[in-house]
Specification:
Distance between the termini of chain A: 21 Å
InterPro entries (chains A, B, C, D): DUF4916, NUDIX_hydrolase-like_dom_sf
Helix content of chain A: 10-25%
Radius of gyration of chain A: 15 Å
Order of helices and strands of chain A: HEEEEHEEEEHHH
CATH class of chain A: Alpha Beta
Protein name (chains A, B, C, D): ADP-ribose pyrophosphatase YjhB (NUDIX family)
Oligomer: homotetramer
Shape of chain A: globular
CATH architecture of chain A: Alpha-Beta Complex
Number of domains of chain A: 1
CATH superfamily of chain A: Nucleoside Triphosphate Pyrophosphohydrolase
Largest interface: A-D, 33 and 33 residues
Organism (chains A, B, C, D): Nocardiopsis aegyptia
Largest sheet of chain A: 8 strands, mixed
Chain lengths: ~180, ~180, ~180, ~180
């Protein structure tokens, strides 16, 4: 799973975090930003384009760790503001029930999700965003796709670690053809 | 189930609708209006106070039929605007998945829900409302309750047909003690 | 939407039902039968093959109307027994919350779902089936597909009215790539 | 949150685990065992009675950590077998979507859930159990309650850390009055 810019590493040194990552599952939240019309229908899906450490590019949803003593909804808001800027106006869901749980294993094939660095368990949410999005930090750009574009092989292929599966699960959940 | 003002009776005469109501389930939507903070946490629950035909008063959530050739999300928006006014700014959910389905039977005791007039099946949603609510038509008033107030026996007892159960199911779904 | 054999037309004559179908939404349940392993993971998805009135064949999930004074869970059990036989041992979900709601409109394009005969609103459920399935009545056969097969274009294309979308939404909901 | 007998502490020493618990959220699963009838309706809710370290007794649902490289559904099965014995025949849900997420904070009042030892985030599931339950290890007994009994103040009060809230959220989710 591509982390979106994690500016708050928590209370661990990099070394400690690395050590823990190899020994217990790490709790994440993931958010699929959407534009909605007045009936709540998702008309566009937002994907971040970012540079991977190897210099390649890929698309991703908003992702990040839940920190110690942080509520899931606070983690969602923090990561959305971090990746979409301070005036994106995300509407965090009222219910803690995620639409799915994506389990990223360091071993490929256990689930559709894979993260070579760690075992991450991500509670995933659809988040309507009504404001102006200004991606910052390591995110180069945010592109809005129609449901048809988001479900296309071209877009899915630009997502790594199974995030393309997550995007299609999100499409399915809001009533579109995945 | 108390209907909220149903100004669009569809394409049936009253007699026809009465006839159908005794012979097939009628599809409803119900919406529990909530005020949320910036993290999506529901801070207040909105209940309509209305006069029952017998002159008594009761509290209820927003309810109404889904009409022929109307999408569920359009029915939700229509009933919310009808009961809360044109500037309530309801945020219709992105996903068609309701948080529960309330089955109102003409016979009490089959489920926790009861409607002497009909067999109604209501898909129920939590709907954040950010604008100004101006109840109109037969709704006398809209009162906002804190989660603690909404869960209190006093409020629950003022709801009929099992709507008190629905309200507590809504509280549970958004993470409050029901 | 292809009805699975509806042997209980309710209390309406064919003519009356036809009349109502053109004037109000009709409530349906749909069930996607799955085989699961001991961890609950869906390993196979069951599709009925049936003859359409025009002599062609198509694949479908289990579908049928909710009758007057019938609970949703009773309708689910009735239709599953009707289509899969008396010893299929379906495990009806404990919660009334469907995984999605499929809205079939007589006009194509309003939603991904289409039924030329009527406006049907179907609450859809995943139903693990552990017993022996003996399709009967007009269902010619029940075939079990792996998740990969179920998601393949070949299978999806043999489903009409948008049921291929519903199947992929079901795949997504249980954690598979849709 | 009362852990049910955690016989597999993972790959951490007690000291290491204690250290991590004070610095990052720990991922848990919780399961509310239910008896269901053939229509999937929950007729009884199972609660474990166990001795707390201080010698008092309390009731709880099935709870436990998700271990490194363990799927959520495998963790659910492991903890259910650990607490209910090898022939309980739990039916692990097909979908990874929990019915709620309970966030246990070391500080009381942040959420309805509290665990003085740690920040635990529990994905909670309803699990039908059809076999014979033989509680073992530190669980003294498993008692089945009707929905009315489970919702009674007497039972709720015997649950600590907010598990009474979780039980009522489970009641609400399966369609009972919470």
């Amino acid at each position: 799973m591509t982390d979106t810019a994690d500016t708050q590493p928590g209370w661990f040194s990099d070394e400690e975090l690395e050590n823990i990552r190899g020994r217990m599952p790490v709790l994440y939240v993931q958010a699929v930003p959407v534009r909605v019309d007045e009936t709540g229908q998702a008309t566009h899906f937002g994907l971040l384009m970012r540079a991977a450490p190897d210099g390649s590019f890929n698309r991703s949803v908003v992702s990040g760790r839940v920190l110690y003593h942080e509520r899931v909804r606070d983690a969602l808001l923090r990561h959305l503001e971090k990746d979409l800027g301070p005036v994106a106006l995300p509407r965090i869901p009222t219910a803690p029930q995620p639409f799915t749980v994506a389990e990223y294993f360091p071993t490929p094939g256990v689930t559709p999700f894979h993260d070579p660095r760690q075992h991450a368990v991500a509670m995933a949410y659809i988040v309507p965003v009504s404001g102006d999005c200004q991606p910052r930090q390591d995110a180069l750009d945010l592109i809005w796709f129609t449901p048809e574009e988001a479900a296309s092989p071209k877009v899915i292929e630009e997502m790594t670690g199974g995030q393309g599966v997550l995007l299609r699960q999100a499409l399915a959940h809001v009533g579109h053809a995945p």
